[in-house]
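Bumping with the actual sequence this time:
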Amino acid sequence: MAIAALITWLFTAIGGFILLGTWIAKGGARQPRTTHLPPPIVFGHFLLAVTGLVVWIVYLIVDKVAWAWVAFGLLVPVALLGFAMLARWIPVYRARVAAGQQEAAEGHFPVVIVGGHGVFAVTTVVLVLLTALGVGGS
């Protein structure tokens, strides 16, 4: 299960990199007026997720359950920040669809990537928690 968590975490990261790259390329970081996603939330989400992934890799190497719990502890704020960004993105997406425009940087996010990122993220959180609890072996 620990390897499955790593795999889903990597797929989550790929989607996250696509979204972050799109957001930066469309001016989200340069022109805060053109985004509904505050840069500290975006970059905080990214940095905590990367830190958690590194901790998870350490867990896989040393096989000490404390590392799994630290990784899970890092995933909690990552998930909360992710849900906060999703809540702010949904009205932007709806407005873009209704008006046929893409003014906000996050208005350019591919829906399939947003959805996939979310599904893999939730799966990762569940697998990390189950691994930390010792369900299914390590």
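The tokens above came from a reply further down the thread. Residues 65-99 form the longest helix (35 residues).
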